[in-house]
Design a protein that fits this description.
Layout: H1 2-21, E1 26-36, E2 39-45, E3 50-55, E4 58-63, E5 69-73, E6 79-85, E7 90-95, E8 100-105, E9 115-116, E10 121-127, E11 132-137, E12 142-147, E13 153-158, E14 163-168, E15 173-178, E16 183-188, E17 193-199, E18 206-212, E19 217-222, E20 226-231, E21 237-242, E22 247-253, E23 258-263, E24 267-275, E25 278-286, E26 295-297, E27 302-309, E28 312-319
Antiparallel strand pairs: 1-28, 2-3, 3-4, 4-5, 6-7, 7-8, 8-9, 10-11, 11-12, 12-13, 14-15, 15-16, 16-17, 18-19, 19-20, 20-21, 22-23, 23-24, 24-25, 26-27, 27-28
């Protein structure tokens, strides 16, 4: 009798878990973004309620609640990413075609004097422990490290390959994907050097990267059409699953235990963390062909996906129940 009750309880818990995992993200609205041209990364400032959208030679800034365009930061040729350092009132934009970073004032959105870095800067993040900006230079295969307070370069870290996206654990490490080497690297932010290199097979050509900091897990999206989960301390690959073509962005929601990866064939794959080493597919959100990047607003549970509509950009906003 006790065994039967235990089995029934286990089944009820499994069904509850599946019901929770079925996030049912629905299209809330389509937001037109002025101008034409390509886009890349999005950055969501949850506390200031702003969304920064890279857009060819400028960054469009949108209110995260009303989605009204509140400003534009011009003259950022080949923009890829936006990093925010709110305690210094500054943001930093990687301008890939100018081999530079463009700082700006977070309040006024006014551009400040650009900073020369390595060749073809791409992803860019803020590292909160040492209060520095990490710039991933794709063509010079290194990272430029800037003081977030004033933008001064404090070091350069050679990587041995072109970097893609990166994340910080806030505890002294930055992790970065090397696309052609099929590796994820760990960088010591105090020593400014690489301390580990982890291969990802069968996950190849890694681009997207996000992190569950509490459980020390890295979520990697690979162009080999794989989603992979790594132990951030040992580099051990603990889970893989198939995803779509041309993945380019990832996100993590610690409240719902959802990991998101967006792919260029028009989908966002949502995985539920059943345990730190076990994951199940919760949902496949249909977006639009070519919509390979995304942003995630955890406070409102919204997935934000830029796409092209007749030559003009629009932002697809998906809301979770």
């Amino acid at each position: 009798m006790k065994h039967r009750a235990a089995v029934v309880l286990a089944l009820l818990l499994a069904l509850a878990s599946l019901a929770f995992a079925a996030g049912s993200f629905e299209l809330l609205k389509k937001v037109p973004i002025p101008g034409t041209g390509r886009w890349d990364y999005l950055t969501v400032d949850e506390s200031a309620r702003r969304v920064y959208i890279s857009h060819s030679t400028q960054v469009d800034v949108v209110d995260a609640d009303t989605f009204a365009v509140v400003g534009t930061i011009p003259d950022t040729p080949g923009v890829h990413g936006i990093a925010l350092a709110p305690e210094f009132g500054r943001g930093y934009i990687s301008a890939g075609n100018a081999d530079s970073v463009v700082p700006f004032d977070l309040t006024t959105l006014k551009r400040l004097d650009q900073i020369k870095v390595g060749k073809k800067p791409d992803a860019i993040i803020y590292e909160p422990l040492t209060k520095r900006i990490y710039v991933m230079n794709g063509d010079s295969s290194d990272v430029s490290v800037l003081d977030a307070k004033d933008g001064k370069i404090v070091g350069t870290i050679p990587l041995g390959g072109g970097p893609e996206f990166a994340v910080s654990d806030g505890r002294g490490n930055v992790y970065v994907n090397l696309e052609e080497q099929n590796e994820t690297l760990r960088i010591d932010v105090n020593a400014l050097k690489v301390t580990a290199r982890w291969t990802l097979a069968p996950c190849g050509t890694p681009t997207a990267l996000a992190m569950d900091r509490e459980n020390r897990r890295l979520f990697v999206g690979c162009r080999s059409k794989h989603f992979a989960v790594l132990n951030a301390d040992t580099g051990r690959l603990v889970f893989t699953a198939p995803i779509g073509e041309h993945v380019d962005a990832a996100a993590w929601d610690s409240a719902t235990k959802f990991a998101f990866v967006s792919t260029g064939d028009g989908a966002v794959f949502v995985f539920h963390q059943d345990s730190p080493d076990s994951y199940s597919i919760a949902e496949r959100i249909s977006t639009a062909p070519g919509a390979k990047t995304m942003g995630y607003d955890a406070s409102s549970r919204r997935v934000l996906v830029p796409t092209n509509n007749g030559g003009r950009m629009q932002l697809l906003v998906f809301a979770g129940n």
